[in-house]
Amino acid sequence: MPYENILVETRGRVGLITLNRPKALNALCVGLIKDLGAALDAFEADDEVGCIVLTGSEKAFAAGADIKEMADKTYMDAYLQDFITVGWQRITTCRKPIIAAVAGYALGGGCEIAMMCDFIIAAENAKFGQPEITIGTIPGSGGTQRLTRFVGKSKAMDMCLTGRQMDAAEAERSGLVSRIVPAADLVDEAVKIADRIAGMSRPAVYMTKEAVNASYETTLQQGIMFERRLFHSTFATEDQKEGMAAFVEKRQPNFKNR
Ligand code: HXC
């Protein structure tokens, strides 16, 4: 399928999506969000893909929602179109893990999209921020909520109220990103990590994702019970038998349901 605003390829069992509006620093226009949703649908349906990497350019992962496109919207436009809801949430409903590989600017909606992914790997030059306040608005796709859960109230307030950017080192220290890698290696490293995940048992991968995500939505006791029930259910899978047999026999597992 031809896309206007993204590049799509597979590397082994990894689906790689590259945001590609270089002249606008990957500003997230309606067309780009549509392309992204369609690419995620395609990877989700493809049994040969086990994990997805979402990246941008070396200068910008994405500099936010497209300001030129939204500047003249009225309240009624925004409300009736349910502006930002439609399309954007596709990332959060994907069952396959999505790794955000961020170099350069991840601002506004760009930071929000990175946070919707399952985890973030940052290049040394990555910069995260919620600068919406500087253009007279506020984050609209989870920035105030997800950033606060990642970095705590004090840093989230600081970033959302002043619009200041966080560099990669601070983002890693604060728990926003899981690892920092040299910019030149970003995509290769992300694909390597994604390939490792894609080699695991797919039911176990899905269950892990469901259980970790449940921790945001439930009490500790209920979350632990949910995890326990999923854990029990892995014993009904061929892959649990294979994984444990491989350990005992000192060999690599060959999971059937990858
Ligand atoms: C539309 C954008 C854009 C954006 C950059 N561009 N960001 N176009 N929407 N969000 C365009 C510029 O207009 C310019 O196009 C080109 O990209 C290069 O940008 P420059 O500003 O010339 O680059 P530079 O001087 O290097 O500065 C980089 C930057 C700056 C610091 C990232 O571009 C910037 O501050 N961008 C806006 C960041 C922002 O406020 N994001 C939040 C958006 S609101 P031309 O044609 O002039 O050359 C948001 C709300 C989310 O995301 C709500 C829910 C999703």
UniProtKB/TrEMBL annotation:
Entry GO MF terms: enoyl-CoA hydratase activity
Enzyme class per UniProt: lyase
PROSITE patterns linked to this entry: ENOYL_COA_HYDRATASE
Reaction(s) catalysed (UniProt annotation): a (3S)-3-hydroxyacyl-CoA = a (2E)-enoyl-CoA + H2O; a 4-saturated-(3S)-3-hydroxyacyl-CoA = a (3E)-enoyl-CoA + H2O
One Pfam family hit: ECH_1
Keywords associated with the record: Fatty acid metabolism, Lipid metabolism, Lyase
EC number: 4.2.1.17
One GO BP annotation of this record: fatty acid beta-oxidation
InterPro entries, per the entry: ClpP/crotonase-like_dom_sf, Enoyl-CoA_hyd/isom_CS, Enoyl-CoA_hydra/iso, Enoyl-CoA_hydra_C
Protein role: Could possibly oxidize fatty acids using specific components.
Family, as annotated: Belongs to the enoyl-CoA hydratase/isomerase family.
The protein's name in its UniProt record: enoyl-CoA hydratase
Taxonomic lineage: Bacteria, Pseudomonadati, Pseudomonadota, Alphaproteobacteria, Rhodospirillales
